[in-house]
Amino acid sequence: MDFQRILAPVDRSEPARLAARAAAELASRFGGGLHLLHIVTPQLVYAEWPELVMPPEDLTEEMLDQGRRYLGELKEELQPIAPETEIALSCEESAQRPFAAINQFALDLPATLLVIGSHGRTGLRHALLGSTAEKVVRKAPCPVLVVKSGESLEAANQRA
User: Fold this and answer.
1) Cα 40 to the center of its chain, rounded Å
2) Which strands, in side-by-side order, build the sheet including 113-118?
3) How many domains is the chain partitioned into structurally?
4) Which CATH number does the domain housing residue 22 bear?
5) What tens-digit pLDDT sequence spans the chain (160 residues)?
């Protein structure tokens, strides 16, 4: 398996952090490059009256700033690996949902391995909230390693 361009999408959750650590370990072990991707979905603020609904650019910019800070912290945490970082915008109302943005970035890179975290939800919670990781796996242009919440790095690396 080729580990030259590893992509780890991160969303500030613990499963994503675990996946980023596993991806950094694989990049270090096999001499590959690591790319961290954070997706920001601009939000709409709904007022009491529908005519006041507007996309707040200030909120989107704040979300981008928070994403940049998070990527910077994660990059420091993953030293001595020096991952590339990228932020992408997605839109829930279009086909460019987070999973689609992740797969498009993996295709454009082109990634040779995608490492993504999963909360491991089942049943009703899974049905209601869905699974970005599951949707990524279905359409990914490269192999995908899913790191489950609470899974040790050793277990994830053994599955790779």
Assistant:
1) 10
2) 84-89, 33-40, 5-9, 113-118, 144-148
3) 1
4) 3.40.50.620
5) 779 999 999 998 899 999 999 999 999 999 999 999 999 887 655 555 555 555 567 778 888 999 999 999 999 999 999 999 999 888 655 545 889 999 999 999 999 999 999 876 555 544 444 578 888 999 999 999 999 876 455 555 565 5
The DSSP string of the chain is: ---SEEEEE--SSHHHHHHHHHHHHHHHHHT-EEEEEEEE---PBP-SSGGG-B--HHHHHHHHHHHHHHHHHHHHHTTTS--EEEEEE--TTSS--HHHHHHHHHHHTT-SEEEEEE----HHHHHHH--HHHHHHHH-SS-EEEEETT--HHHHHHH-
Cα distance between residue 38 and residue 16, in whole Å: 10
Structural domain for 90, as ranges: 5-159
- pTM, two decimals, is 0.81
